[in-house]
Design brief:
The chain has 2 domains: 103 residues, no CATH class; 95 residues, no CATH class. By secondary structure, the protein is mainly alpha-helical. It is globular, with a radius of gyration of 18 Å. Helix 2 packs across helix 5, helix 6 packs antiparallel against helix 8 and helix 7 crosses helix 9. The model has no long low-confidence stretch (mean pLDDT 88).
Length: 205
């Protein structure tokens, strides 16, 4: 069972070390750590993922300011578990700082990202379909296809399927509020795709 899975009470059969659920959980923790530090939030009850993360890992509060030490721990885990550099977390911070000006904005932001990520991952899975069957060692090809798919979502306006077009519009509207770059979105989707492929491998591999 993965470390984060243990923290949040996930069952071993549900996922593997550093799997998709772990990745999404760590992103939520990082969101909440940034919000706590930037907005001077001291009530951990308002930040449930951060509260569990902090208590279980026994992360000490740095300089009497909630969020600072937790951000550092998350960054380290992003690098060690997912090979993501500081550019990934810097863009998260930029997005939050532009859109969360007061504690009341936290819930709205988290709701918007949840809707954005769900729609985005469902649509990219639908658009890439058979391409996702490529073996993991063809990582470069999968990355290129992911980049093209994300670009199509934000630039192409002639999808023939009305359901796809509806999802495209929703994703664009979400991202107008969140402000992530296509590069960040590509990194995010690509990481999820590769983690999904890893989880589908037989347990003995």
């Amino acid at each position: 069972m993965s470390f984060i899975s243990k923290i949040f009470g996930k069952k071993e059969e549900e996922q593997r070390v550093g799997g998709m659920e772990d990745f999404m959980t760590l992103i939520r923790v990082y969101f909440q750590a940034v919000m706590a530090a930037d907005l001077n939030i001291t009530n951990l009850a308002a930040l449930p993922d951060l509260r569990t993360f902090k208590a279980t890992l026994k992360v000490p509060t740095q300089n009497n300011k909630l969020g600072l030490a937790e951000k550092s721990r998350c960054k380290k885990m992003f690098k060690e578990l997912y090979d993501l550099d500081d550019n990934f977390t810097k863009e998260i911070e930029t997005s939050i700082r532009k859109r969360c000006k007061k504690p009341q904005d936290v819930q709205t932001y988290m709701y918007q990202f949840s809707g954005f990520s769900q729609d985005l991952l469902m649509l990219t899975g639908n658009l890439m379909k058979f391409k996702l069957r490529l073996p993991s060692f063809m990582k470069s090809a999968i990355r290129t296809m992911t980049e093209k798919t994300v670009n199509d979502i934000f630039t192409k306006n002639d999808f023939s399927d009305p359901g796809v077009m509806k999802a495209v519009v929703a994703i664009r509207q979400y991202n107008q509020k969140l402000g992530f770059s296509q590069e960040w979105i590509t990194d995010f989707v690509f990481k999820i795709v590769m983690l999904a492929k890893k989880e589908k491998q037989p347990q003995g591999n």
